[in-house]
Design a protein that fits this description.
The chain is mainly α and 175 residues long. The chain is built from 8 helices and 2 strands; from the N terminus they run ααββαααααα.
Length: 175
């Protein structure tokens, strides 16, 4: 899965290729009315031929329910890959998946989670309030993409994965 590639270290070119593959899969899913809601490196499988497969779409509704049911105290996943609106108990939508694309981009480029702490409440507060992380000096051309992917406010994010792909093309970020 994508965790293995990240652990091995990814060069920017490979990270962008991976992001485009993941984005293409999300675009197809969104076109069919599916929102993933649980996009994370473990849910991006890499086939022997190098193609990518997004898995665990079935969990999206379960996760949405569990997060919305805050009084139950049940959270079925780590907050590392939750969008701000999901932390606030709102349903995941296309823009939630787009936020998570930003988290994946950051992790692929840096080898680190965007907001990493052993304190899970701090991770959630960072998703809600901390600035979008600044990428290392080696990757400044990707910062505008990351900023728009990980915008805290829904209306400040890309409105579709097609918009993400178009932005990457126009900014000449595709390899």
């Amino acid at each position: 899965d994508l965790r293995n590639l990240i652990a091995q270290g990814m060069v920017a070119d490979d990270a962008i290729k991976a992001l485009l593959r993941i984005a293409s899969g999300l675009k197809a899913a969104h076109a069919k009315g599916f929102v993933h809601g649980d996009l994370r490196p473990a849910n991006v499988m890499i086939r022997e031929d190098g193609s990518f497969a997004l898995v665990d779409f079935a969990l999206a509704k379960v996760v949405e329910y569990a997060i919305a049911e805050g009084e139950s105290g049940v959270m079925l996943r780590t907050p590392d890959y939750l969008s701000p609106e999901m932390i606030n108990g709102q349903a995941a939508d296309i823009r939630s998946d787009i936020y998570t694309l930003g988290l994946l981009l950051h992790e692929m480029l840096t080898g680190k989670k965007a907001y990493d702490s052993p304190d899970l409440s701090k991770v959630m507060m960072d998703h809600l309030n901390a600035p979008v992380p600044t990428l290392p000096e080696a990757h400044p051309k990707f910062q505008p993409l990351l900023d728009k992917l990980m915008a805290k406010k829904l209306d400040d994010r890309f409105s579709s994965v097609g918009d993400v792909i178009s932005f990457m093309s126009e900014a000449k970020l595709q390899s």
